[in-house]
Amino acid sequence: MTKLTETVQSGDWKAEKHVPELEFEKLEGGKIKVTACVGKEIAHPNGFEHHIAWIKVFFKAEDSKFPVEVASYQFPAHGEGEVFSEPVACGVFKSEKNGTLYALSYCNIHGLWENSLEVK
């Protein structure tokens, strides 16, 4: 039996249009603003037939055993009424610790993709 983790793909987001890109900015009071997007360098198709359905963002503090989900974004409009959701999302969470951000995105045709970024 295949484990779910064995189905997650990765790559360089500058060369692969499915990999979620992560950026962060440290704000006052231990807050961290995170932006996650798919298709910044190479546009991903965005229509009924082929689209990014969601992105989830996790944070694992440097001394924690497990990552914590800090954001979940759904992109439901894929051409209905000529409206298209772009796979770009921004959110803020609070942590006084450094750690690692993880993003997981889902393409309805090509499956799960991941990326990570250290927060220092």
TrEMBL record:
Entry GO MF terms: iron ion binding; oxidoreductase activity
Desulfoferrodoxin ferrous iron-binding domain span: 11-115
SUPFAM superfamilies from the UniProt entry: Superoxide reductase-like (SSF49367)
InterPro entries in the record: Desulfoferrodoxin_Fe-bd_dom, Desulfoferrodoxin_Fe-bd_dom_sf, Desulfoferrodoxin_SOR
TM annotation in the entry: none
Assigned keywords, A-Z: Electron transport, Iron, Metal-binding, Transport
Keyword Metal-binding: yes
Gene3D superfamilies reported in the protein's UniProt record: SOR catalytic domain
UniProt key word Transcription: no
Family membership noted in the UniProt record: Belongs to the desulfoferrodoxin family.
Listed NCBIfam families: neela_ferrous (TIGR00332)
Name of the protein in its database record: Superoxide reductase
Organism encoding this protein: Anaerococcus tetradius
